[in-house]
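Re: weekly structure request thread

Next one in the queue (504 aa):
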Amino acid sequence: MDPITIVIGAIALVAGFGASTIATQKRLGNIQEKAKKESKRAEEKAKEIILEAKEEAVRIAEEAKKEERNRRKEISDAEKRVLNREETLDKKLDELDKRGEKIRKDEDEIEDLKGEIRKIREKQQEKLEKIAKLTKKEAAEKLMQMTERDIKEDLKGLVSKLQNSAKEDAEEKAQTVILTAMERMASEVTAERTITAIKLEDEEMKGRIIGKEGRNIQALQRETGVDILVDDTPGMVILSSFDPVRREVARVAMETLLKDGRVHPGRIEEVVEKARKQVDKEIDRAAEDAAREVGIVGIPKELMRYLGELKFRTSYGQNVLKHSVEMAHIAGNIAEEIGADVRTCKYAALLHDMGKAVTHKIEGKHHHIGGDLARKYGVPEEIAHAIEAHHDDVEATTPEALVVRVVDAISAARPGARNISAENFAERMKELENIATGFDGIDKAYAISAGREVRVIVEPKQIDDLSAIKLARDIANKIESTMQYPGTIKINVIRETRAVEYAK
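Done, posted below.
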């Protein structure tokens, strides 16, 4: 390379470096100038912030001092109020002490006066006993006898008036409630009976039923569990069993076999099984229909079975399921009238006789069994109690239980509900008369109005008016404790005095 070129390049390089250095120094100077200005501004800003902070601190301190002065003033005022209250309480305590001391003095004076009065009374009593020649006890007894003699007639009239008034009001109210319920519940007057006899179109059918060497009838009795009597009544086959469901199964199977005409052990087994399924469906349907008609839901399935079986049970000729449904309707109506729980009354009335479905299997009275079954399957206690207490041997402790008891008597006592033989009717009338004549002072006793009233005629010299009232109550209690009867029995005690004289 040419030396001159190198020298020129070196000179240009040095000149460029120098120019660059000068430019850099100039920029550094500008930057330093700006930094100084910014630093000065920051110092001025910091001074302003510090000044504001000092002013804020002074203001806060002043407010704190002012608040402290206010609090001290409040505390001072509170202390003054407390001191004033303490002074007032001290004054009141002093006054109470003074009053208490005065009261104690007054009590002592009163006790002294009481003692003086007792002494004066004792002296007066001694003087009176000396004058009257009677002790205090004897005088009191004599006074009571005189008072009783003077007001006895008035008491008789008052007792009779009050008793008649109470009876009239109670009977009128009860009649209104019961008649209202019965008017709203129109049911059949007669109730159907469970069929236990099957009519034969041809007497020769008895031979088919018996079968060769009695095989058919033995198979029927074995499958159904029912005794079959073919020789007792002409043209009839009698089915005998304590279980009404079995008897119904046997009836359905027998009618099917007679209609079909094919009677042999194999066919009998098949027909009885079909009849059993048919009766089970009928039981379930009967229970569902009864619950739906009454409007009760949620009855346990096991209890529904017992309820349905009541379709095949009768009591004194009254169908038990129809009786239960009728009772539920009347119980609901009466519960509405008197303010009792309607659902409880209906539920208990519907299931009150379900124990009759198993009385041939379980020992005990049907209402006890019904209450136990209800509790076993989770029915509320108030319903179980109403079921258990619908007869008199268990005390009814709730209004609902009393409603069920009353409605049971109403349903059983209405005309046509039950068939009672003339012999039983006569025995009941005689028993009523014997109970009445068993008391002292009775002249005659008559059971009238189909046993709804007992008319008792007493000896007027032995029985006065007050004793007659007590006698009527005693006879009623004796009948309640010794007899079973539907409805109520009126005890009418008659006391009459006659004076007879002849003019000659």
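The radius of gyration is 53 Å. Confidence is low (pLDDT under 50) at residues 183-195.
Next request, please.
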